[in-house]
Design brief:
The structure is a homodimer of 78-residue chains.
Chain A: E1 3-9, H1 13-23, E2 31-37, H2 45-50, E3 55-61, E4 64-73
């Protein structure tokens, strides 16, 4: 059974790199990946924040936030 | 063709979680993953450091460091 992994980003170079190296490289037999651009989908910022996301790029998997390096603070996207 | 992804950790809870959620979930058709415990393989700390790793857990892929959250500073493992 695949779990869901949500990848939040904001189009920044560090985000694009993380998307290429992780979001596109997770095993599709393990994760169903959803990619969310928080600069464009500002209505999803609160859901990311509620899961503990402080900055992008970040994944939320099983309700836990995983920040990959640092591209932009969530606060800067509001 | 698979690329190599090296996952550096130190056995900390955040490391173990990142290993489970990322190192074990990358698509084996895309990456060949090597898992390195820097607490046990201290001779590999310098190679991680040279690739830009500042803390664990972290991946090095194509010479770039990707830190996932923060478990322990590399300096604390020396």
């Amino acid at each position: 059974m695949t779990s869901k992994a949500v990848f939040y980003h904001a189009g920044c170079p560090i985000c694009v790199d993380a998307e290429r190296q992780f979001a596109e490289k997770l095993d599709p037999r393990q994760y169903q990946v959803e990619i969310v651009h928080l600069g464009q989908a500002k209505n999803r910022i609160s859901e990311a924040e509620a899961a503990g996301v402080k900055s992008v790029p970040a994944f939320v998997i099983d309700g836990h936030a995983y920040h990959i390096n640092f591209g932009a603070a969530l606060d800067a996207l509001k």
